[in-house]
Write a structure and sequence with these properties.
By secondary structure, this protein is α+β, with helices and mostly antiparallel strands. It has 21 helices and 21 strands. Helix 6 runs antiparallel to helix 9. The radius of gyration is 25 Å and the shape is globular.
């Protein structure tokens, strides 16, 4: 660390506040871009901590992990090093939804992430509680609770759920960011002094139980892939012993017990103070909302190879430990299970996202970036994706270079940031494939291709060149097969499109064009879904060139063709004045905007 002799201040190009998944990727990215970087974190042993489940990836999120990997992030590699249960999901549903989901050893993931960051050139780590941030001429000064001061050109705020947060279960409420970790109050007030506006969100965790007290013989096993696919393009196939994942259900007796006790749940009482996640609701919210549903799934997941604790995914709750034990007693296979840690809720401040730009820089103060749950997102992958962009852009800003901005049409990172920044969020935002109108083009197998232009902007020319060569080879094979020059081309295209694939022909294609398995897979997808991929690319171009137009107040959205159900409902309630406004509404997709544009054009012709 470089220290000014005169005024006792440490000097850096970029400082990251927090070392959750956003902070880790931000720190690594900023350092890789050549910026002298510091990460300040409350606890050095919680770097890259996985406080909720042990899962990385899944639909929408697995694609994010791949894009992060191409850009030089660590999440994919660290997951590959530490997986304990991995499988390729949605194989039967097609390539748009196909992705990896892995359970990882939580403790080893954290240890490995810390080791990687400790050995990054240009990166320092410092344990401390950031208490204040203030402007000093063209730089910022961060002061910690122990009185140390740090000067920097740019700051990435990645404080997660720690700003003025409290945790609660039953009648218990503690001022904390996570169980056993202090929250950050002064830093939130310091940000408010700079003019930032905050609102409140909440999320819940499930109880953990002792594996030795579970009747695993009565439970359904969730299969893993014997030789799983890796997240990182750079990882070799790694085989290791995997752990079992089990499935059980909350059924009638348990549902009635929850409903009988629902008034005792703090999350149910706090509904008016803060909003919880729509797609990972507490069990009390779930059974109350879907009271006609006869059962709800619970996944019993291992937390690590050196732990007997099992995570009850699907049983997020804020009930007292006594009620939680009563719930568990009424679930098949868990009748005798012993809770090792009760579930609890977290309520915290988040930044109203209209205050940041698409490069994640603050609109109010140049040089301050926000990433992760502070922006209203939920999930490790969403945080990491924002972190890597904020980290790179903070470093680029410190060197007076132009930022990188991943647009919606470029990939899942673009969709994520676009949704948060332009549409905003009033509930913890989770990435879903359904949010991405270009999901067939934004597949997990071609993430490297889609990130080429950003690699070039970041100066990774050799990596970009290797990826370009790979896809030129795939494209050349496609063109040859489509032409009559390829002697085996008769009926090949049609057979692949109709799923009538002759494996001997596929083997010939692989050998003739010197393709590896990954390249062959991409080629087959490009052939099979050529029409649909071209259609998505056409939509991308139309959206880029779409002029803004006023929407009459009397527009009847019920008669607008090709609107999604959610889009129709949102448009009918919000009644935007223009196409531009419509496109920024939460729940309205690009295809909805195009459908509305066509409708308005047809109406104008008729009048």
């Amino acid at each position: 660390m470089e220290k000014y002799i005169n005024n006792d201040i440490y000097k850096y190009d970029v400082i990251i506040i927090g070392s959750g998944h956003a902070g880790c990727e931000a720190g690594k990215a900023a350092a890789a871009a050549g910026a002298k970087t510091l990460i300040i974190n409350i606890n050095m042993d919680s770097i890259g901590l996985m406080p909720c489940n042990s899962a990385i990836g899944g639909p929408g999120r697995g694609q994010l992990v791949r894009e992060i990997d191409v850009l030089g992030g660590e999440m994919a590699k660290n997951s590959d090093r530490n997986y304990i249960h991995s499988r390729l999901m949605n194989i039967s549903k097609g390539p748009a939804l196909r992705t990896i989901r892995a359970l990882v050893d939580k403790k080893r993931y954290t240890i490995n992430m810390k080791y990687v960051l400790e050995n990054c050139e240009n990166l320092d780590l410092r344990q401390g509680l950031a208490e204040s941030i203030y402007r000093d001429n063209k730089t910022y000064i961060i002061q910690t609770s122990d009185g140390e001061r740090y000067r920097c050109n740019c700051v990435v705020v990645a404080t997660g759920t720690f700003l003025r947060s409290s945790i609660f279960w039953g009648k218990n409420e503690i001022k904390a960011g996570r169980h056993g970790e202090i929250n950050s109050v002064s830093f939130a007030y310091s940000l408010e002094k700079l003019g930032y506006k905050f609102a409140r969100l909440r999320t819940e965790t499930p109880p953990r139980v002792d594996l030795r007290t579970i009747d695993t013989a009565s439970l359904k096993l969730q299969q893993y892939d014997e030789i799983p696919e890796m997240f990182s393009y750079e990882s070799s196939k790694i085989e290791r012993k995997q752990l079992n994942n089990y499935i059980t259900y909350i059924e009638k007796d348990c549902i009635n017990y929850i409903l009988d006790n629902i008034s005792l749940a703090p999350a149910f009482q706090k509904k008016n103070n803060s909003k919880g996640p729509k797609y990972c609701p507490s069990i009390e919210d779930k059974v109350n909302k879907f009271y006609n549903k006869i059962r709800h799934t619970v996944f019993i997941q291992p937390e690590g190879t050196e732990s007997n604790e099992m995570y009850l995914h699907g049983l997020f709750t804020t009930f007292s430990e006594e009620v939680q034990q009563g719930i568990i007693r009424r679930i098949k296979g868990l009748e005798n299970a012993i809770i090792t840690r009760p579930g609890y809720g977290v309520e915290y401040d988040y930044l109203c996202p209209f205050q940041i730009n698409s490069n994640l820089e603050s609109k109010k103060h140049t040089g301050i970036y926000f990433a992760g749950q502070i922006n209203g997102s939920t999930g490790y992958e969403e945080a990491a994706a924002q972190g890597i962009i904020a980290g790179y852009n903070a470093a680029l800003k410190s060197k007076r270079k132009k930022p990188i901005v991943i647009e919606r049409e470029d990939g899942y990172i673009g969709v994520l940031i676009d949704d948060i920044v332009l549409k905003g969020t009033t509930e913890p935002y989770r990435m879903l494939t359904s949010r991405n109108e270009y999901r067939l083009y934004h597949r997990h197998d071609n993430a490297d291709f889609r990130m080429i232009k950003f690699l070039k902007k970041l100066g990774y020319f050799q990596k970009a060149s290797l990826i370009t060569d790979k896809y030129e080879k795939i494209d050349n094979a496609f063109k040859n097969i489509k032409s009559t020059k390829y002697y085996k081309s008769r009926d090949i295209l049609e057979n692949i499109k109709q799923d009538r694939i002759n494996m001997s022909i596929i083997k010939n294609i692989k050998n003739d064009f010197l393709l590896n398995d990954t390249e062959l897979q991409s080629l087959i997808i490009n052939i099979k879904y050529e029409h649909y991929i071209d259609r998505e690319k056409e939509i991308i171009q139309k959206m880029k060139s779409l002029p803004d137009a006023n929407i009459p107040a009397y527009t009847d959205y019920k008669i607008v063709k090709n609107l999604s159900a959610e889009g129709r409902e949102v448009l009918d309630i919000k009644k935007p004045a223009s196409l531009k406004q419509a496109g920024r509404l939460e729940g309205v997709r690009a295809t909805d905007v195009l459908a509305l544009a066509v409708h308005l054009k047809n109406v104008s012709r008729e009048t």
